[in-house]
Design goal:
The protein contains no helices and nine strands. By secondary structure, it is mostly beta strands. It has a single domain (5-122), classed as Sandwich (Jelly Rolls).
Length: 123
Amino acid sequence: MSSQILLSGGDKWFSYSGELFGDVSVPATIQTNLIPNTGLKDSLVKIMPFYGDPAATTTGEQLGVKVKLNDVTIINSQNEYYADAIEGFTIFIPRQSKLEVISLNVSANNTQIRGCNLIGYYL
């Protein structure tokens, strides 16, 4: 899990989760990024989830992503996909907001690699 890191110019920030995966004991969700307070300025944020090759390819066995802003779900996506075709999401985040990105999991793909990179531009 990764938190927010301010870039040297002070006008952008980023968060990298790194590669995450589990085993059969992993729950149905894995937190990839948690930023308790996005700062004193509003942000435009690009959310870029990534996934490794699926362990299971049957319908309903894909990973997904949930984005929560101040504990309210604003994105919930778990669709059929090709791992390299994820485009990501761009969202507006008000100042001093809590941002959380969660990987949605299914038991057949507990060991599938997943993660999320964020870049925020202060407005």
